[in-house]
Amino acid sequence: MQKSLNVLDFERSLAELDKNITAYESAASERGQDYTAVIDDLKKTRRRLLAEIFANLTPWDEVLLARKSERPYSLDYIKLIFDDFTELHGDRLSSDDQSIVCGPARLNGRSVMVVAQQKGRDLKERTLRNFGYPRPDGYRKALRVMKLAEKVGIPVVTLIDCPGADTNLGSEERGISSAIAVNLMEMSVLGTPIVACVIGEGGSGGALGIAVADRILILEHAVYSVIPPEGCAAILDTFGRDPNRKDEAAAALKLTAKSVLELGIVDEVLPEPLGGAHTNVEETADTLKAALIRHLGEIEKLPISELVDLRYEKFRRLGIYDEIPELDEPSL
Amino acid sequence: MPPENWFQKNTKFGSAPIEDKDRAAVPDGLAVKCSGCGEILFNKDFEKNLKVCSKCGHHHRMSVDERIAALFDEGTFEEINVPIRSRDFLKFPDYQDKLDKGWAKSGNNDSFRIGIGKIQGQKCVAGLSEFSFMGGSMGSVAGEKITRAIETGVRLSLPVVLVATSGGARMQEGLMSLMQMAKTAAAAARLAKARLPLFIVLTDPTTAGVMASYASLGDVLISEPGALVAFTGQRVAAQAAQGQKLPANYQTAEWRLERGHIDLVLHRKELATTLGRLLGLLYNPAVAVRPARTTARSTARAKAGVSSESSNS
Prior knowledge:
The structure holds two protein chains of two kinds.
Chain A: H1 12-31, H2 36-55, H3 59-67, H4 74-81, E1 100-107, E2 110-117, H5 123-128, H6 136-152, E3 156-162, H7 169-173, H8 176-189, E4 194-203, H9 204-208, E5 215-219, E6 223-225, H10 229-235, H11 246-253, H12 257-262, E7 268-270, H13 281-299, H14 304-316, E8 321-323
Parallel strand pairs in A: 2-3, 3-4, 4-5, 4-6, 5-7
Antiparallel strand pairs in A: 1-2
Helix pairs in contact in A: 1-2, 3-11, 4-13, 6-8, 10-11
Chain B: H1 18-22, E1 31-33, E2 40-42, H2 43-48, H3 64-71, E3 78-80, E4 84-86, H4 95-106, E5 112-119, E6 122-129, H5 140-156, E7 160-166, H6 174-193, E8 198-207, H7 208-211, E9 220-223, E10 229-230, H8 234-241, H9 253-258, E11 264-265, H10 268-282, H11 292-295
Helix pairs in contact in B: 5-6
């Protein structure tokens, strides 16, 4: 009941069932009556309904799931996946942007550098984390610790979860475009393995600013988009410049984990428990941990120079277009 | 709430092509009205002044052809034909229609063209964005052409000049257009490794995904006066400010210059001479690294794919 504000449309029927199940359960304990059969039946219905709902999620449903406030955030995973995480602060220039948390940690016993975007759950933390919109200082801090990782020869793991980069006056003044651009360039040649995982919202340039990696993973119900669907709908005549047509824009943008895998942009979709990552955080963390270890193990076998060349090729080949046969490229 | 403007329709940022706007007002096509101050300017003088208003100095948008004529020594620009064309691979509503219209108007050039030419006698690889094709937006084709321009610089050991005019990434290509930011930035890193300078000319408007990738990565950043140079467009910026007063010249070239974000704001008439001078000062062929694979290109040992222009064709 108290969660009703957070219940997504497609979860409403589940919530209704949950309410009934709870009612029968409390009635059973209060009055000592046996409702086991009814409760079992309701639970069976719930399982069936859940499977049915999750088999038919629309892209917009996926956006809502990815943004859901109960969804585990970076620090939830960091706690469950890494040991000895020690946060490092500040970009050594102007401030410490807490929408990106960074620091060394142990993954399965060995050192890695963690760079993770962090949203807040309550108002206090949301304010502290700038509602998940990283500022230039965050990207510069991230680059600073990634260079440290390169220097001491440990790999980088990035977790992506942000609606987009910050657009306020202060961020423009401190050069948000340049901060992101420099990260893209520097990450493309960083001399250490990088694995990135989109765990919630992969919000355009804000996400990409820490997502140039040798392996790019995405959780099943995370999304990765060039623009938020509301923004896309508000800007394009195609959607009547009406932000309310966000569901159409979400479908057109092909932003689901499955779609971006099909586009060849991400390397693997990591399965979530039925119902979403928030229904079993430990299980999701285990999946993510195993994937990080596996992918790092694969790319660490390569000499660094080869890895960096492969990273260039990985992004170099991204792009879909038609060849025009009738024109010949002059040889230079 | 940032990226809403990543693809902002850019017509509101500045002047629409002056001919479109004012042909009706000046029927004979002898004169145009300045979209900065409203002054009536004779076409001949206006063109001679490189589409800059002689009264208020407003820099009107140029097509790539006009830009080439203004920037390069006469007859030196040789276009590199890149025989590729945008594909509506997401089946994004209206995209094919927009492409068809764009091609009908401009041929197969999409929003970017590349070539090799001389500026004040200095040879360089160049790339120029065409605003009239879907707001200069960067999709797979523009990303590929920008990358090829930069790789051509690496291969021929030449400096690279890119003239940017773009609303940002092309959202009709979804996440693939976001990836063009990483692709072009990675190419810029290769140019840097080869010890070759990258020059960026920012013209009105350069915003969002283009500003947050290659357009910010020039060793020298030059802007035209009054150009909007921004991560977010003005409408979204005003929303984000939530009543906070924004400076009158917020996000203009001049505002950027004051903050140390760009090197120079130059009148269009000074652009070629200054660029030519800088090319001469900063291009040092003695240290420029010619990649081994350039010479080995024709040999069987050439590393397949890596940085070869034909790798993606």
